Amino acid sequence: MTQTLQLDGRRAAFDESGPAAAPTILLIHGAGHDRGVWQAVAAGLAAAGRRVIVPDLPGHGDSEGEAAGAVDAMAAWVLAFADALGLERFELAGHSMGSLVALAAAAAAPERIVRLHLLGSLAPMPVAPFLLDAARSDPAQVHALINKFSFAPADVLGEERRRTLEAGNRERMERNGSEALARDLAACNAWQDGLAAATRRDCPTLLLCGALDRMTPVKAIGPLHEALHAGGGEVRRVELAGCGHAMQEEDPVAVVRALLWSD
Question: Less crowded by CB within 10 Å, the N or C end of the chain?
Fold first, then answer.
């Protein structure tokens, strides 16, 4: 059910599902996206007995304000949002840019995060300079490139399913606007605290990777994986066969299964 609350005088929109008294998981979307990208995963988690809360970050979806433009600022917003809901301890999952936000939040408030789930994540997460420039000057080109690299090949997904996923992704990026996407990509590129943050979090952590991911490829995950191990606590790495970067839309059933690894 879609709800809103006031946070710093601005509307924060979110979806909530599942039993109200159940353990809570927050799902954080990626660059240029909104809460809709988690729809299928949220439904699966709620059916499995989780209380699932999926916010739109500021300047995205139905949340007011402008995109924060900095990972630490988004992480502070997520923790303030949790405060507004009265959440003391909760699971936290993030995809792509959202994984950096989740990691920063877990490092800033390690006592509050029960489990951390990082989907399609790298640290650092560099963005090509031409993409940073084109996000403002030629958003249609950037949308096309993001679509090209977000999904598994058509011979894996099927031509029709890939076209459907690309169309939905393009519509979502267009709806959220070029300014939000540009600020999000710049935030990913600028955040250099990821490996240090990984050593400061204090909870079991899942690294969920798409085996066919070309945006945050499995072969580049090593530094983050090592930093998480250095921080202590259980670290689990799972690769989803047949999935690219947009795994929560390509195979939501497998993503739900992975997120429930503690059950």
Answer: N
